[in-house]
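call fold(seq) -> tokens
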Amino acid sequence: MAASAVRFLLFYLPNPHMKKVFTLGILVVLMSSCFFADTIFEPPASKETSLQELSQKAVSSYLEDQTQKDYRPFGFGVITIRKPLEIVELEELQEKADQKPSAEYDTLILQKKAFIEENRIERSISLDHFFTLTDSLGKITVYETNFILNDTLGVKDVSAEIILPLGRKLLPALENYFYEYNIFLTPSYYESLNLSSNFYAFFKSELERREGIQEKSDFLLHTLKLTEQVAKEGAFEQEKILQRQVKQYMSKERGDVKSYEPLSFSDLYQKMQEENENVKGYYFFHKFMGTYQEVRDTNVVLIEFNPYYEMEQIYQMDRPFDQYFNR
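ret:
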């Protein structure tokens, strides 16, 4: 196929003096998980069950009763109690009446109570929950969902933030990711712990910034695939991971390019932000053979990744091809 046959946008050549990348460029502050893992709950300080625990049990019971699927809880967020303004105003009136009793306060309290009862205004509890459901065919789906409970801990509303069908092969990666198990192989346990913690914090903080069910679900899947590869190799080898990602994309998702055969990759380069010298992404060149519109030819493309190692842009490069690899 001719070099221009693959319909990619033509792009400028990057600065050849950019530094090569050899190590994981993660500079983040360690973060704790947004969820409490079920296996690390401490026993309550007293025999009285806390509202947090009662809310969690209510949500778990609801899912077990409603889904008819194998339910596996991973963890819960901290409950948030939502108190409507009318109830806040009633409590303020009652506090004033206790301090200075009067018929006027009694009348206002009765009116406010009547209004609250008539309009069915009540406190509610917001609780995030991370869990999986497995159907009778073994299909696993990952959910991150917000539950709204009424003042008797009945489920009023449910809204999902993540809905991710997951192959069983990635289930160990999900467990590593959620419970933040060590996945780096190093001579020192504490070095492995630090690298693993930074890895999880880097991707979890970005997941929190993503918006929409599809975007968040896609990013979680991307992160789990990276987690699987790191756990398998014991290290974050950027070039190898991104090369594998490109090969999978070209062979499985580019249906218009037939008989894809990877030939070579350039070194991996990083792009820096001029104002603060932070890494804003990565790129490399890739040479491959492929058949496009029944014509087989050699091509070179420039492939750009964002700071989270997601493929963003692919640009067709002009001949001669040697200039992209002899740098």
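Confidence is low (pLDDT under 50) at residues 1-33, 38-47.
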